[in-house]
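Could you help me review a protein record that somebody else here produced? This is what I was given.
***
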Amino acid sequence: MEEPKLRKDAVRNRERLLAAGRAVFAERGLDATLNDVAHRAGVGVGTAYRRFANKEELIDAIHIQQVEELERILTTALAEPDPWSGLVFYLEHSLAIQAKDRGMAQVLSGQFAQPRRYDWGRDRLAPLLNKVADRAREAGLLRDDVTGTDLILLQVALTTIASTTPNSIDANEPGDISQLYRRYLWIVLDGLRPDRDTTTLLPVPPLTTQQTHTLLGSASHE
């Protein structure tokens, strides 16, 4: 049976809630409430609950958008003539959006998403990600023992760095360190190559000892 079409104002409110939900969850993670989202969207709490029965239903709807976004990145990666460039493109771009979106990183690491929806996303993305890895491996550009599942877990590890890294962690040593995860991405990329004569110039400098202690100390008290 076909679902009844929503009125134009209901459609607008749903889209506002989706956009607000993506923004709130990106900033605060998925512990934020549906009330928080309604406030950001500028609609009443009752309106929010008419469009989404609960927070989980909103997260599922946002997850569909996230999967479609990653699917586009993977499709672009597979269109790259050079398989290694395609692999790097995928990791850089998928990590960039997850670094800015705490909620997305939590869902993709297996947290909060309903099993049915998580399985749907996996079935959409996993075959494409496996192709990205297979192309690079078959071209002799990726280690023979690395698969698409390795790339997934490496992303989870790297987004953990991104999610615990504020823009600045020491007033005495100012500087934007929100890109710190990219340093470790490029260390990982060198490790994924089967043969190399040199190492890649890392795009982000290392933290000082004090910055590292500050960062890890603040993360342990969250």
